[in-house]
Amino acid sequence: MKHVKLWMLAAILTCGLVLTSCSKDDEPMVSPTDEVEAQLQQMTLREKVGQLFFVRLESLDPSIEWTTYDDLASLKILEVTENMKSVNKNYPVGGIILYAWNIDDEAQLARIIPQVRALNGHPLLCIDEEGGRVARIANNPNFNVKKYESMASIGATGDPKNAYECGNTIGTYLKRYDFDIDFAPVADVNTNPENVVIGPRAFSDDPAVAAPMVTNYLQGLKDAGITGCIKHFPGHGDTKADTHYGYASTQKTWEEMLSCEMVTFKAGIQWGCQLVMTAHIGAPKVTGSDVPATMSPLILQDKLRGELGYQNIIITDGMEMGAITQQYTSAEAAVGSIKAGVDIVLGPRYFTEAFDAVIAAVNNGTLSEERINQSVRRILKLRLGMNR
To answer: Which of 79, 135, 210, 257 has the fewest beta carbons under 10 Å from its own?
Structure first.
C-alpha cells in the first residue's frame, strides 16, 4: 500500500463519497466526468506526466545499457529490481509493457505482475499479443494456450466470427494472467507484397474483409475483459521498410487512404475502440513532409481527431524504434509527439530524459498544463472503465 500515490487514495475516497451520496434520493448521481475531474485535481504535475508514459521494465533503470533488441532479450529482466523501484519513486508511470524476454513461465509471471502493480503511478499492464508471429505468451513453450498461425489465415476464412474467437481466446488468457491492455489487433491493410513488417499480421489486403475482422477481434477482447488497440495509424500496410530500424513511408494520398486504410480504422473507431496506436511512417503526400505520423499534428489532430472524429486515447508505437531515434532525441520525441496530439508515449529510448523534458516543457510554456490534463482525462476515463 505504501507504493500507492496519494492521488489514487484520494480517488478511492472520492468514489466512496460518490457511492454514499447516490443512495440518497434527493442527491444527483455523480457522472464519470466528475470522478475524472476529482482525481485530476488531486494529482501533481509529475503524477500527471507519469500517466503519459507507458514504458518497458528496463526503462526504469537508466544504468541498463542496450543497443539492439537482442541485447534486451539477453538481459532477461524477469522482476522489478530495487534500482527500478528507486527510480520509479520520482518517475511514476502510467503503464508497463512486458515483452517476451520479461516472461518465463506462469509462476514467474504471477510473481512479476504484483510487483508491477505496486509501482508508483499504478501502472496498467500491457502486452503485444496479436496471435501469430507477434505473441509474447503463445509463442513461449512454457505456456499452454491456443496458438494461431496468423491473422491473414483468419482473414482468409472470410468469417468474422473466427476473428472474434481469436480475440476472445487471447483476451481470456490475458485476463487470467491479469493484463489490462492488448496492443492488438493490427488494423493495417497489407497491400504491399514487399512489406517486411506487417505482412500476415494483417487480416487481409482487402479493407472490406479486414474491417469486420478488426471489430470482431476487438469485441472478443472486450468480452473477455481486455482493452484492445488498433494499429498502426494511418496504416503501415503499404510500406516497404521496417520502422523498427529506420525511416519508412507511404506514398499514398489521403484520398487513396480513405478508400483503403481508413476503412478499417473508421470501423474500429465507430465500434468504440479505446486506443489507436500511431505508425512512425512518413506520409509525404498527406503532410507535405517526411515527418513521422507520430509527430504530425495534421495526421493526428486534423485527420484522426478532426475528420474521423476519434476522441479516445492516441498512443505512439514504441519510441525506441529506429524511425524515431535516428531523427529525434528522447526529449524531442516525447515533447514533439505530445504537441502533435499524442496522449501516451510508449517506450521512449531514455525514459527519465523524456519525462524531464515534458516537465520542463510545461514549466517553460512549450506545453501547457491544460494540454497535459486533456490527455490525463482520457487515461483516467479508461481506468475508470476498467474499474482499476
So the answer is: 79
Mention every residue, 6+ apart, whose C-beta is less than 8 A from residue 261. Answer: 188, 189, 207, 234, 235, 237, 238, 252
Q: How many CA atoms lie within 13 A of 209 on its CB side?
A: 18
Of residues 103, 4, 10, 45, the one with CA closest to residue 375: 45
Helix 207-223 to helix 160-176 angle (10° resolution) is 30
Q: What is the pTM of this model?
A: 0.91
Q: CA–CA separation, 138 vs 135, rounded Å?
A: 5
State how far Cα 11 lies from the chain centre. Answer: 23
C-alpha to C-alpha distance for 203 and 163, rounded to whole angstroms: 9
Question: What is the residue-wise DSSP string for 106-147?
Answer: HHHHHHHHHHHHTSTT-PEEEE-EEETTEETTTTSTT-----
Three-class SS state of 61: coil
Cβ atoms of 183 and 231 closer than 8 Å? yes
- Evaluate whether 73 touches 30 at the Cβ level (below 8 Å): no
Residue 91 region by backbone torsions, left for phi larger than 0, else alpha for psi between -120 and 50, else beta: beta
The size of the chain, in residues, is 388
- With a CB cutoff of 8 Å and minimum separation 6, the contacts of 57 are 77, 80, 84, 96, 98, 102, 116
Q: pLDDT tens digits, residue range 42-98?
A: 999 999 999 999 999 999 999 999 998 899 999 999 999 999 999 999 999 999 999
Q: Among candidates 322, 325, 299, which has minimal Cα distance to 310?
A: 299
Q: Are 138 and 184 in contact (CB under 8 A)?
A: no
**Contact of 235 with 189, CB cutoff 8 Å:** yes
CA–CA gap between residue 312 and residue 316 (Å, rounded): 13
The burial of 126, by beta-carbon neighbours within 10 Å (0-12 exposed, 13-18 middle, 19 or more buried), is given as: buried
Q: Pairing state of beta strands 129-131 and 134-135?
A: antiparallel
